[in-house]
Amino acid sequence: MFPTTIAGSLPKPSWLAEPNRLWAPWRLDGDELAAAKRDATLLALKLQEDAGIDIVSDGEQSRQHFVHGFLEYVDGIDFGHKVEMGIRADRYKAMVPQVTGPLRLKGRVHAGEARLARAHTTRMLKITLPGPMTIVDTVADAHYGDRARMAFAFADLLNQEARALAADGVDVIQFDEPAFNVYMEAVVDWGIEALHRAIEGLACTTAVHICYGYGIQANIDWKATLGSEWRQYEAVFPALAKSRIGQVSIECRNARVPMSLLRLLDGKDVLVGAIDVASDAVETPEEVAAVIAEATRYVAPEKIVAGTNCGMAPMRREIAEAKLEALARGAALARKRCG
Questions:
Q1: What are the helix (H) ranges across 61-131?
Q2: How many CB atoms lie within 10 A of CB 15?
Q3: Helix, strand, coil: what percent of the chain each, to 5?
Q4: Measured between alpha carbons, how far is 271 from 299 in angstroms, rounded to an integer?
Q5: DSSP state letter for 284
Q6: Chain CA centroid to CA 278, Å
Q7: Rounded CA gap, 323 and 320, in Å?
Q8: What is the mean pLDDT of residues 264-288?
Q9: CA distance 21 to 65
């Protein structure tokens, strides 16, 4: 019961990129950068294993950003003429590349880190990809003229990479869709179908990660406007329960999400976020176990995976490492109490 995993990203070492910052520029280039990314990936694996994490990831060490790390390998995208755009319904602004033509993969995207990780761990391996809806919310469209049409074009590319990752020996492929908490009607209208296109033909475990965002100030400010109960999940969980996605990863620790909403995910494995990535306070094992215990009131224990609320890329590295240890120890305590 209660295997542990992370949402995806871990802080990058200071010799690879500027710490405590999203979209941090690389500190090396060329062959030195490629070698540093490999070293950082191995370090991320070791940190997770030492902490006791069961389903490990590459920590997204080879990506500057969880969306742009994929887009860099796509033809039809112009990074040379970025524009400022509001994303997540104008929650914050970012400089984003433009889609200027038909989308095609230039080649493999995450083969290097996936194969490296697979060769150096015997544990279950998860690799994350950005979801189609979140991608279209993070680029400027100067070609397709329709968000759904562009999302399905990206979904085809994601499926190509996902199938290759499965062939590389990846056990879990997770699609990150924070946009599912923003555009709820579109999720039901076309967002889940775009995910279905992305997972077509996959025999490995598939997951979708839906959260309230990284622990950055723009997201913290947005959460403060959501009132005493965060019910965004209520609008999309029933549709996800009927979907072909195997697992749903959500935010629970220090969230105002009514845990009873988990009932709406009947039949799915639920990745319960038991680690708050918006706070430097390190959870105790007891606090982690308490989140898991509350989740068991609404989800069968054998369907629960203990995880983090979101990626940990912007966090201080020593805090992230301590939180990993707390997650593993808390899950062990929950197992003992659950019997």
A1: 68-71, 111-120
A2: 11
A3: 40, 20, 40
A4: 11
A5: P
A6: 15
A7: 5
A8: 97
A9: 10
pTM here is 0.95
- Any idea what the Cα angle at residue 172 is, between residues 185 and 62, rounded to 5°? 90
- For residues 238-265, b (16+ Cβ closer than 10 Å) or e, as one string? ebbeebebbbbbbbbbbbebebebbebb
Q: Which two tokens stand for residue 9?
A: 């990203």
More confident site: 7 or 86: 7
Q: Which residues contact 278 (CB under 8 A, 6 or more apart)?
A: 214, 215, 219, 220, 254, 309
The alpha carbon of 312 is separated from its chain's Cα centroid by a whole number of angstroms, namely 10
Residues 312, 288: contact at Cβ < 8 Å? no
Average the pLDDT over 100-117 and give the result. 97
- Phi first, then psi: what are they for 96, rounded to 5°? -125, 155
Q: Please report which confidence band the pLDDT of residue 215 belongs to, taking 50, 70 and 90 as the band edges.
A: low
> For 133-171, how does the pLDDT look when each residue is reduced to its tens digit (9 = 90+)?
999 999 999 999 999 999 999 999 999 999 999 999 999
Strand 124-130: give its sheet, edge to edge.
Answer: 55-57, 124-130, 172-176, 205-209, 247-251, 269-273, 304-307
Per residue in 199-213, pLDDT (tens digit) is 999 999 999 999 877
* Host H or E run for residue 79: strand 74-87
Residue (of 9, 3, 4) closest to 178 by Cα position: 9
Nearest CA to 7 out of 323, 217, 318, 271 is that of: 271
Tell me the domains of the chain and their CATH numbers: 30-338 (3.20.20.210)
Closest Cα partner for 109 from 162, 58, 65, 171? 162
Both structure tokens of 167: 């062939």
Residue 44's pLDDT band, with cuts at 50, 70 and 90, is very high
CA 14/CA 8 separation, integer angstroms? 19
pLDDT of residue 225: 83
| CA neighbor of 64 nearest in space, from 278, 277, 313 | 313
DSSP bridge partners of 269: 247
